[in-house]
Amino acid sequence: MELSELQSLWIENDKKISDSIRLNKEILRRMLMSKPEKRFNWIKIKAEISLFSPIILFLVLLVTDIQFRLTANFYIGLGLFAMIYVTNYVWGIRYFLLIRKIDFSGAILSLKKEIAELEKYKIKITRISYMLMPFAILGIFLMLIQKPIYTAESIVMLALIVLVYISSIYYTFKYSIYERFRKLNKEIAEIEELEKE
User: Fold this and answer.
1) pLDDT score of 1 more than 70
2) Membrane-spanning regions, if any (predicted)?
3) pLDDT in the model for residue 194
4) Residue 180, exposed/middle/buried by CB under 10 A (0-12, 13-18, 19+)?
């Protein structure tokens, strides 16, 4: 064999190895990308389910057959509850639309930016929702309870509601939101690291 033949064989094998490495990296990228996509699909499903909350609320009201007294307290409570419910629903729609804009087939850097924007928006609306929730609960009480009764049972019930509310805030901000997006960002960072190699 001549030197030129060896050189051409060497170049040909080098090209095959490069193609094989590129193909392996793409396969690995797709395998790594499937995990954040599955996690993101769960986020998307939860957002879609929350879009059906008015229908669920309406069905609950039909099934329970709650009788309301049309007094001033009822209308004040209805106004408080409806205002906060509609505001949260509009934010839920905007959150869902932000989720739908995210595309996993694009560049990793733009994907990370979109997910960071989504995380910031979710934290913001969750924080504001938790601040408004006591007014919605007050609205529900005004609609349902015409005369406040201060017995031991009602005070225990209110204390339990406050306790559950505070623990819900703690869990949501300590674990739920941050953990969900932290895992998603970690998986995307692995893909970004692979692309840099």
Assistant:
1) no
2) 49-68, 74-91, 128-149, 155-173
3) 63
4) middle
Q: What is the pLDDT of residue 63?
A: 83
Answer positive or negative: Cα dihedral of 139, 144, 149, 150. negative
Q: How far apart are CA 9 and CA 27, in angstroms?
A: 27
Are the CB atoms for 112 and 185 separated by under 8 Å?
yes
What radius of gyration do the chain's Cα atoms show?
27
Joined tokens for residue 70:
């049309």
List the alpha helices (DSSP H) in the chain.
3-51, 53-64, 72-101, 108-144, 152-171, 177-196
Do 169 and 130 meet the contact criterion of CB atoms below 8 Å apart? yes
* CA 70 – CA 78 distance, rounded (Å): 10
Phi, psi of 148 (to 5 degrees): -70, 135
Q: Which two tokens stand for residue 83?
A: 């205002």
Tell me the per-residue pLDDT of 97-116, one tens digit each, with 9 for 90 and over: 988 888 777 776 677 778 77
Q: How far apart are CA 69 and CA 103, in angstroms?
A: 50
